[in-house]
Amino acid sequence: MHTCTTKGQEKSIHVPTSAFAKEVEKVEGGEAINKCIQCGICTASCVVANATDLYRPRRMIQKIILGLREEVLSSDQSWLCLNCRMCEERCQEGVSPAEIFLAVRTIAAREGHVPRVFKEAVKTVLEDGWMLKDAYTDFQEDEREDLGLNPELHMNNEFVGKLRKRYFERKKAAEESGS
Ligand code: SF4
Ligand code: SF4
What we know:
- This protein is mainly α.
- The protein contains ten helices and two strands, in the order ββαααααααααα.
């Protein structure tokens, strides 16, 4: 962000300040990156930041504005956002850090920077139909039966089928194009 003086008054103008900020601005969700005035309300409102000093949404946006591309993309930070949108509700400048981090994840994923835990979660859903491997057990079936509930909880085959089709078609297309 740059500032200029209009009739003696300081006024913010929102000009992309680094090549990376311009790149994020062009990705869906990242459009408002350069409106950020670095006030820090998002960090003060963030549930993850309240739980750990390692996560600071304002600081992450600053790094994007400063153009620290590799540092941001190779970090797991944007993947820690819970997408709860509290920051978005409170930002006075109309910026949604949640949306910005989704845009950063999009760029990171295109370049292969996806944290292992997310890759494994997708793999497990594709193989097993559940997010957590063996999450649904015989014990739960017995419990459901005792409660008079249907114990036959099958995975949503239609959903998993669509997911597999989409995932494998994209993977095949990427392999064929050599990317
Ligand atoms: S609350 Fe909005 S303007 Fe303030 S630092 Fe966070 S994103 Fe930037
Ligand atoms: S959406 Fe993400 S950055 Fe915003 S408050 Fe929630 S966890 Fe924090």
